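residues and backbone:
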Amino acid sequence: MPIRLDRYEEDTWQPLAEGETDDGGRWSVPDEAPGGAGLYRLRFGTGRYFAALGGETFYPEIAVIFNAPDPGEHHHVPLLLSPFGYSTYRGS
C-alpha cells in the first residue's frame, strides 16, 4: 500500500518520506528522513491498494495525524483496514 509521512511546519504539511508497505503490511521510515518532536501525518493510499486487489473502498485515502512529543521515541501506528472501515491506535 502506498504510504507517505508528512510533518506540520510553519502552518503547512511538509513531506518527509514515502514508500510502500511490505508483504507483512509494514513500512519503516527511512533513516535519512528528518525526525524530531512534532505533529505528523501518515497518508495511506487505500484506493490504490484495493484497486490492485480488484476491489473498491469507501475510503480512497486515510490520513492519520498524531503528535510525537519525544524525538527519540519509536512510534508504531497500525492501520486495521477493511473496504468499508478502519481503525488505528498507538502500538508498542
Observations:
- The mean pLDDT is 93.
- The radius of gyration is 14 Å.
